[in-house]
Amino acid sequence: MDNIKDFTDLKAWQLAHRVRLEVYEFIKLLPPEEKYNRIDQLRRSSSSMASNIAEGFGRYHYQENIQFCRQARGSLEETRDNIIAARDLKQIPQEKCEELLELLLETRKVLNGYIRFLQKQKTNNSS
Prior knowledge:
CATH architecture: Up-down Bundle
Mean pLDDT: 94
Helix content: over 70%
Strand content: under 5%
Number of domains: 1
Shape: elongated
Structural class: mainly alpha
CATH topology: de novo design (two linked rop proteins)
Number of strands: 0
CATH class: Mainly Alpha
Radius of gyration: 16 Å
């Protein structure tokens, strides 16, 4: 973590940002009647992931950073739920959904690792 100078250096943020970009492409495939439902939800939740990681990084206190990362994880799960719903409703080709779901699971794994790292740093710096 010594080479992390900015939130854009974080693997968790990089993946969350990639999710956001992929979701913005994904929603172009959704039917127009989803404009005010699933499309808006996906825009908000996918953008919230990267934004919360960035905001947490800027707080400089481990506990606050952890809390923002947990919020990012909640937005990730909300995004997953909407992708699963689009898949199951057959609104998007299944292969496209599976690719995005795989990216979300990878992002969750990295984000959970980052949260564990922050918790460990918090413990080590409080003793």
